[in-house]
Fold this sequence. Notes:
The chain crosses the membrane at residues 66-88, 100-123, 129-153, 186-208, 228-250. The protein is 75% helix and 0% strand. It is built from 13 helices and no strands. The two termini are 20 Å apart.
Amino acid sequence: MRLSWTGRIFMTLSGLVLLLPILVVAASALNGGRTMLFPPQDPTLSRFTEFFVSEPIWRTALGNSVIIALGSSALGVLFAWPAAYFLWKKASGLSKVIAGMLALPFAVPPIVFGVGLGFMWAFSIGLGTLWAGILSHAALFAALPLVTISIGLQSIDRAHLDAAATMGATEAVTFRTIILPQTIPYTISGFFFAMVLSFNEFIVMFFVSSSSYATVTLQIFNSLRNGFTPTMAVAAITFIAVSVTAFSLVARFGDLPRLMGADQSRT
């Protein structure tokens, strides 16, 4: 599809609106002092060294963010796969209820969900632990792999399933040779969507961490009492880099047009 001149101008302006704030933040990370200024003063890359190597507070926060993002997105996929499969296979009342329960936390305002989880973990031994943070984000973002996996299952050509049944393939063989290979891109896409949102999430983590540990978003909040520092800009660049990398992988190896609702050719 070719864009008109009006469309090209609109897309160019949209790109500039998105790109300019990123350039300002990226330049602010180069400040040599402790204050975030633009244009940067005494440009240096030492703030990147502080964030990734020499400052234990930021390094630990980054490690916690990575552990929670990867762990929760993997768990979210494990939660979502059976629900999406049985919803596609049988669409029974139970499978609809389970799928609805998985999707519900994503529809609830994060502060309500975070307060609820805070009370729940307070009555158990989970408040302030990393594993509680992983479970909380897995519950919050399981709706994303649920949606992408469901889209992948719906895209499977029924003729392939009928051919497998005609040739005497069992359900296990059909699942292993037809269903699973065709849904892997959608499963990976759901994993990356959940991972990016978990990496950037603040509100729920604020309640379930109970100040026992910090992720990057929480550490940015904690550091605000000292003003805006260039290290925060490095953290912001890290968020952008993770998001761009994940969505680029989804666009390259997944079925992004269909996931975005733009390709209805196989419905």
